[in-house]
Amino acid sequence: MPTLMRLLFVTLIMLGASVRADVNPDCVDRGLLSRYQAMVEVQTLQVELLSHDSATETLERWCKRRGQVNPAIITAERVTTIGQRPSPEIREYLRVGRGVALKFRHVRLKCGDMVLSEADNWYVPARLTPVMNKMLDNSDRPFGKVVKTMGFTRHTLSATLLWSPLTDPGQTLLNPPSEQAEDLPPPHVLFEHKALLQTANGTPFSLLVERYTRNLLKPTRSP
Length: 223
Hints:
By secondary structure, the protein is α+β, with helices and mostly antiparallel strands.
């Protein structure tokens, strides 16, 4: 198991032990408890995303379990961009020279009307089928669903936590009322993942940078 995955699992175990409600509920710092719970939710979702190849399917399962929009279907709202040029680093990740055409797709992945993540995606059209390319150009289907039949694998390059609801993970939940923790709202982006999608023979065809939003912590409104 990769080191990052081990760390996330250990964090979940520690946080789970911290929020056990086997104490007098009148003594529990409710604000701090909600922040512990938010951290558990964020870390749980990170583990799920890092252990599955399709972020889209993981988000759909997440929405379904939380009783959000029914049916829990993720759609990709495409955002028009102009003048995007791949850097040498992007071409190096995708193993293509300057003469090979790349395409850029920026989307907001939504469940109902709630944006759960935003993704920048550089991909190699020549490594996809004509049907896939047409669908990516003309539909709101998420990239992972369009290329699903390729049997791709996902290789995580980085996973960065951009927000922690806990300034002190060792802080006790049993605080006097005068020392209750302030309920701080999370920022728009909770964490960011960078990943390569590869064919069965290990050829990269897509480089993704995904930013997951605080909407993952609250119910999705029906459209």
